[in-house]
Amino acid sequence: MFFDPGKFTVALTLQKLTESTDAYGDVGETWTDVGEGQPVYAYISYAQPGIGDETVKASRQTVWRDCTIYTWYRTDITAQRRFKYGDRIFNITSVQVYEQNNAYLIIRCREAA
Fold first, then answer.
1. Does domain 8-112 have CATH number 1.20.272.10?
2. What is the value of pTM for the model shown?
């Protein structure tokens, strides 16, 4: 597999889940940006149509798409985080290092529609 870094043109925001306690002691979860506003430049590749496009749960339909995101190697990208691109959310399901010199990451994601 060969990567063309020139295709890394999509500017994604990496986010992590943080817990906070309000004045009443209630714990809330929010997603906060990682990397001080520096985008993660990447390439997004979608699975073939019809493969993993949708699933039905408890009489309601949840639509999602599987995709693969390719980017430069970074240590702060983990399966406990997600990417945001405008209004779109990509939940990370797995992260794989490509090449022995840690040049690139192959990130499997599920995009909620």
1. no
2. 0.79
